[in-house]
């Protein structure tokens, strides 16, 4: 099968899910309510990684809907994306970076996704005309990089990705282009089985203007022979790969697991970049968010078990005001720093808040 055919075999319905797990009538009714609001899709590859005998399996927790998604606490726009949208599908929050939402589809829908409001759903947030986005980028010389995200842009046909790269290639003030994609983790066949995509990336990733892939491995169990092969093929295509993990309750909120993940990433050629504090996303916050106090403990304990290259990541909260680094806790205060900020005057500012051991977000701190 082609990768498109394989994607078409993804598990998207409760009936398909019941091939793997038994559900009571009440559980089935609850999950139907969940996926009616937030669709389910899990690739056959990714679902094969689940140990169904383990109710706490981390892949299962990340990929399979649960009744916890009926909880409505939180927000669908935790980072102020709406207020930073300059035209349909293009956000410009930080002066040097343009973010393009290229699609609302992914190979698998993560149950903790911070864009649950749009993935797999009809919406008016995805770019309608990429050429219009390109013109905005061309007219703003302060923009030196573009992040193409979604959804997952690597689910788009290779021909569309080619058009994107060609349209961006003659903008002189762009230094690099990033693709935010989880395909190497959840659907490695998309990369390994498409020579055209690999050739395109190699052609466009130049010595003085690289293509970056920003992916998301969250657990060592996701690092398999097939994902390693996909990573290797990207590296052979002159692509630089960075990883953004999300600290998730019941998945990687354990220093040993987090340390193993970072060490393995470095061993396969993936650069640890960020570990994100899980955002207070509606239908995900209570199930997945770890309190900041506990998160800091986990991060610091994990760092004791990893080498310098593996601990290059920053522990980051992607707040509506900017990317805030969690520096640490001393006495009764948590210390924070604006790693990036919507207001450039805030970049580098260090500040503190009174610690609240239950707080999971800046807005929950005094």
TrEMBL record:
The keyword Chloroplast does not apply. InterPro entries: Aldolase_TIM, Lys_aminomutase/Glu_NH3_mut, rSAM, rSAM_sf. PROSITE patterns: RADICAL_SAM (PS51918). [4Fe-4S] cluster binds at residues 106, 110, 113. Keywords: 4Fe-4S, Iron, Iron-sulfur, Metal-binding, Pyridoxal phosphate, S-adenosyl-L-methionine. GO terms for molecular function: 4 iron, 4 sulfur cluster binding; catalytic activity; metal ion binding. Transmembrane segments: none annotated. Its cofactor is pyridoxal 5'-phosphate. Residues 92-325 form the Radical SAM core domain. The keyword Iron applies. Pfam families: Radical_SAM (PF04055). Gene3D superfamilies: Aldolase class I. PANTHER family: L-LYSINE 2,3-AMINOMUTASE AQ_1632-RELATED (PTHR30538:SF0), LYSINE 2,3-AMINOMUTASE-RELATED (PTHR30538). NCBIfam families: KamA family radical SAM protein (TIGR00238). This is KamA family radical SAM protein. The lineage of its organism: Archaea, Methanobacteriati, Methanobacteriota, Candidatus Methanoliparia, Candidatus Methanoliparales.
